[in-house]
């Protein structure tokens, strides 16, 4: 037996308790990465040349007595920089454009003898090389990336013009004034009153977001009143939205969003990086972002998406609670993202795409499964087409792409598919989408599919095999709308995304898209000689109505069609909730004739199943007996809700009290419970709401609210009513406020 000692097993060390250690950059880099605009470094008030025993007396040298940031709403800095509408106690300016500050010294400034600088600091690790510490000098002999010059002197006061670089970091800066003495540098103490915000500048030619169109700038940067389009392609509805980008606290909330994302301060001068990061941060799925998406119809623990009237409540709640806000759907994501972009100075607009395909595999195809007889199989049909989808466009140059692909870029905050591991989309060049250049970043292929997918009908045999029987190449991306600048009308911008259907340019684009991996269905299918048309309908919630199917026989022989007509309550995303109608008539059409088949739809069959936005989706499919060809048509019917009425009384003058009265009558035979009414208006009223536990059938509610206009001009007041069994009820009134 060996005399060697044997190892005795011992118990593993106890598991550590308490929170894990905070991971830092210590040991990796001498200066930690600054990723929060709210963090700041303390700059010493005195930096000696050498190592004196104490701070020497400096009374005989130049000293700073006062600094005036010229930050009042009616002063030149804010007027010249188009920031006078921001409700803030701080100076807000735009990069690439001069602003002025007044410095009062203890004596007359002598350019030949005195040396001073105005210093700007952002983040916790200011460095000159990173652009987070920027000294600005008053003489041409010594300049930094930001230009400085003395524009006026008077006694002991110097007015200095400062021009931030057109690509500088966007955010909140601290400002100091530093004076050189024989003993060292002496600077002002930290004073929050000298903090300032620097934004993107669409008025500056050297800025990446420069937009050389004053009408577009007024709309896409300065306008707070939005119109968002929804409904159906042939029954367009619209709702008002208060972007509120100038409201108190909104700018800080937007910067907080970037802080929450831990985006490095040094990246915050590039609009491409900022918009891509914000696209991820507007939803909460993978980064604790601003909004929680909910399409279930159950909004018990939050605010229903249809109830919001503007972005202010959402952004301020997020900044205060530091928790995602419940709930959102695509137009809420787009509206709040629009506020974020406009607030930071990036031109932006909300866009609505009707019949928007959600393509998750890049095949440019939406599949609808039919059985052997031509009936739509809703159980096996997994793809859906959104009745509409809202996203944003923002305007910027794209130096990373070839010339011509700058301008409007698609960014989308609604979480659909991941991009580089996170739920986000864009910025994708609209020009790249139109020309099929899907290799260009970011996510151009996904947006291309949203507006260009084919709808392919498949016949499924009993053995499970499927054969394409019909392709509709024009259904998806039927129309793309945004608000007209300076007006309350809509603008059709479909041509900016697509060439005309069937044109030579369109064929070239589709071929190019296929080169980048987007495969289309190329089946050569016979075209049926019977056309089926479902006309547009305008129906109110609670109405019985008739669905007319018009058959047109283009042949010189009789045709017999075995039809299947299915109607379902659907979410606006195209996802079916309940089937409320099924009919299978046989229709005979004479040679070169037309026949109309009428199907009755009763409200009792759909009312109890309705979800928000009250959409009914009808699919009519059938097989022609004589030819075995398939005929099909789809129709979305957006049921119209009752309206709120808003009336205002008073003089309509700045700072004079007015009254807004909201009225609503319940037109239904059932009670409305847990009713929320919300109201707000740009320059008129901060967001307010009122709760009603019950609005009985046939009864009315009246809510009167006092408000005081804060500025002159044309504006509007918006209101919504929302409860579990009635969504998307709204109203608005236009007001002109006199000075």
From TrEMBL:
UniProt KW keywords: Acyltransferase, Calcium, Metal-binding, Transferase
Reaction catalysis annotation: L-glutaminyl-[protein] + L-lysyl-[protein] = [protein]-L-lysyl-N(6)-5-L-glutamyl-[protein] + NH4(+)
InterPro entries named among the record's database cross-references: Ig-like_fold, Ig_E-set, Papain-like_cys_pep_sf, Transglutaminase, Transglutaminase-like, Transglutaminase-like_sf, Transglutaminase_animal, Transglutaminase_C
Entry keyword Ribosomal protein: no
Domain Transglutaminase-like positions: 322-415
GO terms classed as biological process: blood coagulation, fibrin clot formation; nervous system development
A GO term, aspect molecular function: protein-glutamine gamma-glutamyltransferase activity
Gene3D superfamilies hit by this protein: Immunoglobulins (2.60.40.10), Transglutaminase-like (3.90.260.10)
Protein's recorded name: protein-glutamine gamma-glutamyltransferase
Organism: Betta splendens
